[in-house]
């Protein structure tokens, strides 16, 4: 089956959707777009699309089956509700909603109208993340006890709506939601402890850097860090397991894995004399007790899978086929809310999330 899409908000990410659909998904045709800023009309036309004069004319177009909401975050809720009430399925950009309350309202409309409401959590198909997931699932290096997932920039927050609180700006909503969603996909047990520190180094209204620590019921601890003033980069991923460790330096660098082969240790012979004095605990492992290997990043990007699953959901009417499910979005929204509360009040949150 073929579907026709309309776009609300024709900025940076809308063009990314356009490219993915054009290259990979012939079953979805984009008919046109509405952008509040008339200066964007030229770009809409250059992409061979129809310019709608307002949102209502797009939403009342009987040809449109699916609406992509790719405006700043504060417009997602109103557009999602209006689109579903107009009989359209909705693919909403992340973060889909700015509160659990808003999300529940939107999900209630999805239920009432029988329309799909799903979210573009496309970083579930990032190749670095898929590598980490693959090694963890294979169990080659045992169970993770500490995971660090971070993105480090040093240019500050992009000088658009992302600096404005009312628009849903800030790094938790911009990047945090992706990194949280990735981690939540790894474990099917609740978070039992959460602590977050947020910084307003140069942007008074929104978090420009944050550090979020979470402990899961299975004992795994995760630290998610988003920096926009990090002039020295730390690895994108660092994962410590009970039988080894792995590191991904940067998005495209592949994973370096160290696997433990032998747990026996001759402590007496392992004293190392460092610049700070002798130590046995921090001495290197004896030769032959570990194995190092590298796995390259996959060549093919699979970031179009979300669309394939959405098409299956629309075709069959079976919304469980859609990649990003309401309960998953509920959970990531609750994690972000807890993170904001923890940072605001300076408290450790001990609740099951
Ligand atoms: N999934 C991802 O990887 C990813 C990446 C970037 C952005 N996003 C999300 O996509 C959304 C848009 O981000 P962007 O980077 O494209 O921003 P952008 O500023 O480049 O584009 C937003 C567009 O929406 C238009 N707009 C603003 N208010 C509008 C309204 N009420 N109605 C119609 N149009 C309106 C603006 O004029 C602009 O053209 C945000 O929710 C953002 O979080 C997701």
Draw up the topology in text:
Layout: E1 3-8, H1 12-24, E2 28-34, H2 41-46, E3 50-51, H3 55-59, E4 66-69, H4 76-85, E5 89-92, H5 100-113, E6 117-119, H6 127-138, E7 144-152, H7 171-184, E8 191-199, E9 209-216, E10 221-227, E11 237-241, E12 244-248, E13 255-260, E14 272-274, E15 277-279, E16 290-295, H8 305-316, H9 326-345
Parallel strand pairs: 1-2, 1-4, 2-3, 4-5, 5-6, 7-10
Antiparallel strand pairs: 7-11, 8-9, 9-10, 11-12, 12-13, 13-16, 14-15
The structure holds nicotinamide-adenine-dinucleotide (NAD).
Nicotinamide-adenine-dinucleotide (NAD) binds next to helix 1.
Which labels suit this protein?
single chain; 353 residues; alpha/beta; Rossmann fold; Dihydrodipicolinate Reductase, domain 2; 8-stranded mixed β-sheet; 6-stranded parallel β-sheet; 16 strands; 30% helix; binds nicotinamide-adenine-dinucleotide
Using only CA atoms, what is the Rg? 23 Å
The CATH H-level superfamily of the largest domain is: Dihydrodipicolinate Reductase, domain 2
How many separate helices? 9
Q: What hetero molecules are in the model?
A: nicotinamide-adenine-dinucleotide
Work out the count of structural domains.
2
CATH architecture label name of the largest domain: 2-Layer Sandwich
Strand order across the largest sheet? 8-9-10-7-11-12-13-16
How many strand segments? 16
In helices, the fraction of residues equals 25-40%
What's the CATH class of the largest domain, please? Alpha Beta
Strand content: 15-25%
**What is the residue-averaged pLDDT?**
96
Give the low-pLDDT segments: none
Largest sheet: 8 strands, mixed
Q: In one word, what is the shape?
A: elongated
């Amino acid at each position: 089956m073929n579907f026709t899409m309309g776009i609300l908000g024709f900025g940076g990410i809308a063009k990314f959707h356009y490219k993915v659909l054009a290259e990979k998904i012939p079953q979805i045709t984009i008919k046109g777009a509405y952008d509040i800023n008339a200066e964007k009309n030229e770009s809409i036309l250059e992409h061979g699309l129809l310019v709608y004069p307002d949102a209502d004319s797009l939403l009342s177009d009987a040809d449109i089956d699916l609406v992509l909401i790719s405006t700043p975050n504060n417009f997602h809720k109103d557009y999602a509700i209006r689109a579903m009430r107009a009989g359209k399925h909705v693919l909403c950009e992340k973060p889909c909603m700015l509160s659990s309350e808003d999300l529940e309202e939107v999900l209630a409309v999805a239920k009432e109208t029988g329309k799909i409401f799903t979210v573009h959590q496309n970083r579930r198909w990032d190749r670095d993340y898929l590598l980490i997931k693959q090694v963890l699932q294979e169990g080659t290096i045992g169970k993770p006890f500490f995971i660090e997932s971070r993105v480090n920039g040093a240019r500050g927050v992009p000088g658009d709506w992302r600096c404005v609180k009312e628009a849903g700006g800030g790094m938790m909503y911009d990047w945090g939601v992706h990194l949280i969603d990735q981690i939540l996909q790894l474990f099917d047990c609740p978070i039992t402890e959460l602590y977050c520190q947020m910084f307003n180094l140069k942007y008074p209204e929104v978090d420009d850097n944050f550090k979020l620590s979470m402990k899961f019921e299975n004992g795994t601890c995760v630290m998610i860090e988003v920096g926009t003033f990090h002039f020295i980069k730390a690895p994108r991923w660092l994962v410590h397991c009970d039988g080894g460790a792995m590191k991904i330096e940067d998005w495209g660098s592949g994973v370096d894995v160290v696997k433990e082969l032998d747990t026996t240790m001759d402590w007496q012979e392992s004293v190392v004399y460092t610049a700070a004095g002798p130590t046995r605990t921090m001495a290197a492992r004896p030769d032959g007790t570990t194995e190092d290997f590298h796995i390259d990043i996959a060549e093919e990007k699979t970031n179009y899978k979300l669309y394939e699953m959405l098409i299956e959901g629309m075709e069959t009417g079976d919304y469980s086929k859609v990649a990003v499910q309401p309960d998953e979005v509920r959970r990531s929204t609750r994690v972000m809310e807890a993170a904001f509360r923890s940072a605001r009040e300076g408290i450790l949150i001990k609740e099951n999330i």
